[in-house]
Amino acid sequence: MSITIKDVEHVANLARLDLSDAEKEQFAGQLNAILKYAEKLNEIDTNGIEPTSHVLPLANVMRDDAVKPSSPIEKVLLNAPEEEDGQFKVPAVLD
């Protein structure tokens, strides 16, 4: 498969890009180089190789959920610019 100038123009139109003729030539060459490399990768025999999403094995490191006492409301509300009825008071965002 090969990328033509017409293909580059089509993608540039979809992306609402105004490219010069030199840029179209440059992008066509670069995209063709990428496709050529991908074709080269397709030549590699991968039979018997298990697909992976990462080179190294990854695992989430999660701590156990543990119930802990919360900070006292009086201490928390010290950080509030305004407080009303034991809650943070914020400006209204809806009319």
From TrEMBL:
It catalyses: L-aspartyl-tRNA(Asn) + L-glutamine + ATP + H2O = L-asparaginyl-tRNA(Asn) + L-glutamate + ADP + phosphate + 2 H(+); L-glutamyl-tRNA(Gln) + L-glutamine + ATP + H2O = L-glutaminyl-tRNA(Gln) + L-glutamate + ADP + phosphate + H(+). HAMAP family: GatC (MF_00122). Belongs to the GatC family. Its EC number is 6.3.5.-. InterPro entries: Asp/Glu-ADT_sf_sub_c, GatC. Allows the formation of correctly charged Asn-tRNA(Asn) or Gln-tRNA(Gln) through the transamidation of misacylated Asp-tRNA(Asn) or Glu-tRNA(Gln) in organisms which lack either or both of asparaginyl-tRNA or glutaminyl-tRNA synthetases. The reaction takes place in the presence of glutamine and ATP through an activated phospho-Asp-tRNA(Asn) or phospho-Glu-tRNA(Gln). Keywords: ATP-binding, Ligase, Nucleotide-binding, Protein biosynthesis. This is Aspartyl/glutamyl-tRNA(Asn/Gln) amidotransferase subunit C. Heterotrimer of A, B and C subunits. Pfam families: GatC (PF02686). NCBIfam families: gatC. It comes from the Bacteria. The keyword ATP-binding applies. The keyword ATP-binding applies. The lineage of its organism: Bacteria, Bacillati, Bacillota, Bacilli, Bacillales.
